[in-house]
Amino acid sequence: MLKVAARLYDRIMSGVEEGGLAEWRRSLLDPLSGRVLEIGAGTGANLDRYPEQVTELVLAEPDRHMRSQLLRRVAGSEHTVEVIGSAGEDIPFPEASFDAVVATLVLCSVADQGAVLREIRRVLRPGGVFVFLEHVACVNDPDTLRWQRRIEPLWRLVSGNCHLTRSTEVAITATGFVFDSIEHEGMSRAPAIVRSTIRGTAIRQ
Ligand SMILES: C[S@@+](CC[C@H](N)C(=O)[O-])C[C@H]1O[C@@H](n2cnc3c(N)ncnc32)[C@H](O)[C@@H]1O
């Protein structure tokens, strides 16, 4: 991610957050408890939405510019947090280490989505919860999907490898997770090419 993009990220996202994204984050994270890992934590947009029952929080962010924004936010937070620089493809914890793993707006950007999902599954305890919130391919509208396909190569270059046409729901199922809840909804105030989202929880069997 470009340094300037990391610095501007929260400002760029502010309209979408106010349009409903912030509330989605809150309602997904509020039920969590115990030991939690967030991958691709970015600037820490989720940080203040973790409830008190989360006793240990590890935030992983591989991009140094995003991580420096994250560290700034962590310094001003009430949570005790460990920040690490690991990518989701290579999570440096033993299997079954966490009660929950969180990924919000991350699986669009990772280099190897299948490998990241396998790592998430590995570090979750049996019965543990994977919390996801991701923009995805707009399969219900062929015109938008066509635009997503056209724009994707350029978009990836300017948006830190963000893909517009990933079928993340299929990939989560293919990794062996079972959905506990999943919502398909347009993200208010977002451009059409990133508006289609999925959010919910999937259980590690
Ligand atoms: C659009 S930002 C989302 C940030 C934050 N999760 C949020 O909800 O606002 C995507 C983030 O994914 C991170 N990322 C990219 N590739 C990654 C990977 N392979 N593993 C983990 N995170 C990655 C980026 O550095 C960036 O911080």
Structure notes:
This protein is of the alpha/beta class. Helices cover 36% and strands 26% of the residues. The protein has helices at residues 3-29, 64-75, 113-123, 142-158, 168-174, and strands spanning 34-39, 54-60, 81-84, 98-104, 124-135, 178-186, 196-203. Strand 4 (98-104), helix 3 and strand 5 (124-135) form a beta-alpha-beta unit. The structure holds S-adenosylmethionine. S-adenosylmethionine is lined by residues 1, 39-42, 45, 61-63, 66, 87-89, 104-106, 109-111, 160.
Spell out the blueprint of helices and strands.
Blueprint: H1 3-29, E1 34-39, E2 54-60, H2 64-75, E3 81-84, E4 98-104, H3 113-123, E5 124-135, H4 142-158, H5 168-174, E6 178-186, E7 196-203
Parallel strand pairs: 1-2, 1-4, 2-3, 4-5
Antiparallel strand pairs: 5-7, 6-7
Residues 1, 39-42, 45, 61-63, 66, 87-89, 104-106, 109-111, 160 line the site of S-adenosylmethionine.
Features of this protein?
single chain, 205 residues, alpha/beta, Rossmann fold, binds S-adenosylmethionine
Task: Sum this structure up briefly.
By secondary structure, this protein is an alpha/beta fold.
The helix count comes to: 5
N-end to C-end Cα span: 34 Å
N to C succession of SSEs: HEEHEEHEHHEE
Question: What are the low-pLDDT stretches, counting only 5+ consecutive residues below 50?
Answer: none
* Ligand names: S-adenosylmethionine
Structural class estimated from helices and strands? alpha/beta
CATH architecture: 3-Layer(aba) Sandwich
